[in-house]
């Protein structure tokens, strides 16, 4: 049944594909919107805008991949919606691939689109790596903000020393992974003086961020105080999150170690500088 659905979606991508007189393939954004299961243009345009940013940051030429339809077919740009010209883009396979990468992963068609529009070129591989890196980096920064926030919250309620906060954090990690921090670092071959979060995938980072958000909320709402009470609140929320992950077939302690975010950040900064020099 699922194979038939995959073939049906792939067939739709083929049917909406257009080819010009030179044999160049392209897709209408409006057609792609429907094929990918997006009901509203405004929501889909948001995905296109993210894809355009990815194209720019990876050194791609936006106008070569995301062409305004009215620039290519002036007569089509006259078609109006509510008195305004209907907006549309003509997209290359690369543009469609970037859109699929930035699309809602919960949509079945998106996963099929990633495979369909993928090309075995280093350029696309780098683009995908960059998007995944940016998602991880964003999640890591958000987690750091949540850590800073809860540190202030518990400081007012009994956990004041840095070593006490470190112990507090470790209690939550151990409840989430069902293993000590020391053993987890050994298992993943992570130096003792480095934070686990720098090697976490996006799911882990967002899970930890969620745990801190719930814990911070409950501490304030229940007016919790005292080292043991605060630690217990974090532990219970970590265990509840672990249970949810396990129900989704995600075993936290079995997840693979990711590339060091600090090294990746330096690498992508160098690439960005290199691309900027090329454009000058």
The span between the termini is: 52 Å
Query: What series of H and E elements makes up the topology?
Result: HEEHHHEHEEEHHHHHHHH
Q: How many strands in all?
A: 6
Backbone CA Rg: 23 Å
Shape: elongated
Number of domains: 2
The structural class is alpha+beta
Main sheet attributes: strand count, strand direction, barrel closure: 4 strands, antiparallel
The mean pLDDT is 88
Helix content: 55-70%
Low-confidence stretches: 273-280
Give the strand order, joined by hyphens, for the main sheet: 1-2-6-3
Number of helices in the DSSP assignment: 13
Q: Strand fraction band? A: 5-15%
Describe, in plain words, how this protein is organized in 3D.
The protein is α+β, with helices and mostly antiparallel strands and 280 residues long. The protein has two domains: 2-119, no CATH class; 133-279, no CATH class. Helices cover 66% and strands 6% of the residues. β1 and β2 (25-28) form a beta hairpin. The N and C termini lie far apart (52 Å). 25% of the residues are buried. Mean pLDDT is 88; it is low at 273-280.
